[in-house]
Amino acid sequence: MTAASLLQGVRVAGADRHLLPFGDEPVDVLLSGGRVADIAPHGTFDGWRARHTTLDAGEVIDGRGAWVLPGLWDHHVHMVQWALAAERVPLRDVTSAVDAAQKMSHAPVQADGRRVGSGYRDVLWADAPELTLLDAATNDVPTYLINADVHSVWLNSAALRREGFSEEEAPDGVLREADAFEISRRLNAADPAVADVAVLQAARRAAARGVVGLVDFDMAWNADAWARRTAAGFDTQHVEFAVYPADLERAVRSGFRSDDPLEGDRTGLVRVGALKVISDGSLGTRTAACFHGYSDDPHNHGIVTVPPEELHALLLRATAAGIRVAVHAIGDRALSNALDAFSATGAQGTIEHAQLVRHADLRRMGSLGITASVQPQHAIDDRDAADRLWATQEAIGYPLGSLRAAGIDVQLGSDAPVSPLDPWHAIAAAVHRTGDDRAPWHPEERLDIETALRASAHRGTAGNGGVRLGGAADLVLVDIDPAHASRDELRTMPVRTTLLAGRITHHSARTYGG
């Protein structure tokens, strides 16, 4: 992969522009050893190759007025699931169970004999998934429809039999929570070579959107998978991979500690991440654990999938081993339980999602120093469902501005494949809080563009990434100043060049001089 040593004629965007004395004037950024060695007015380094032979002899990129930002991270990705989604029938736009079943009746049969679709959202359908409906459309071909939230999977009778479930266990054909995750694990456990090729391709697409880092929450033993991928040539992003409770003791025996490099990874890109604990369900499957019932079913308060005492024990064990934690908590009851466990154990890490938060817990979360790892696109996708199903909730739905006002650090992600792996979608959603012609949904929860960009860099607003002297040369060049971009311009931001430690992982045009 080619390295760059000088960015000529670029302008600094984001909060870093206020820390430098150049304003919007073009500057040159000198890169050396994977870091930013100097920033000076445009033209300062003309002829620098001849005078500074000890500096890196990489390419000179003629920025031609492009805007330079810290490289972007997606802080919540299910990498294999996202990579394989390209091979599955897209169901995001189907509007009913009848439509979904009919679409799957024409779906191609994969090499393993299955039909697989993903991305449906039945939460606002007028009808509901039914086993007989899917059977009539798909006959004896094992057929699987994965909900967009991945917390439920709709199977036909042939698929239920193949996976060892009875129709009595799933009379409507729908498996939820732990059973649904098990189905997803089985579907994702394709030939590793096939999955790895898909991951490498997805990673290159991510680099084309300015992504320099991923936090991978695949439900697997990710250490072996990432060692295999780096050996096969993966070198486009930093990766922090999660461990799940079933593998926690294995991780402890292996000596894993958060932020340690993965043993055997010669690229230096992959590090141990957090223990991921899924403590409740989701809004779309109506299983997020809430203090108040769902509006269409007042007796349903969702599901606490990890009892408080078990959550406490997991956090205590991980913390003692030097592993931070990432607790999936969508409903306000689950989030409150998680904060109890953080407080009692001294654990550090993130609350993943935080889609319903009580006012009192905002203060608690801020005082505990817990970061909110959130996915702003979910607010756009879920607004109609939240308005209907959480109408009687008293907590704050899909907070962003309230989190920051409470002093809580925020980091942004996609939850791909729930939303596309594209940080610009998250940024646009955080800033504008709408994805169509409707007015912003709860505009008081918007982030300003500079905060959204900071939250999209490594570790979000708690991180220290930036376009600054000594900073990592994880950078992205874009054609539009984000500060003046419209919602649609942010979503489709033209990314010219992405640099990972000064190496070019993406370029849209070779406009480099030398």
TrEMBL record:
<protein>
    <submittedName>
        <fullName>Amidohydrolase</fullName>
    </submittedName>
</protein>
<feature type="domain" description="Amidohydrolase 3">
    <location>
        <begin position="59"/>
        <end position="506"/>
    </location>
</feature>
<dbReference type="InterPro" id="IPR011059">
    <property type="entry name" value="Metal-dep_hydrolase_composite"/>
</dbReference>
<dbReference type="InterPro" id="IPR032466">
    <property type="entry name" value="Metal_Hydrolase"/>
</dbReference>
<dbReference type="Pfam" id="PF07969">
    <property type="entry name" value="Amidohydro_3"/>
</dbReference>
<dbReference type="InterPro" id="IPR013108">
    <property type="entry name" value="Amidohydro_3"/>
</dbReference>
<dbReference type="GO" id="GO:0016810">
    <property type="term" value="F:hydrolase activity, acting on carbon-nitrogen (but not peptide) bonds"/>
</dbReference>
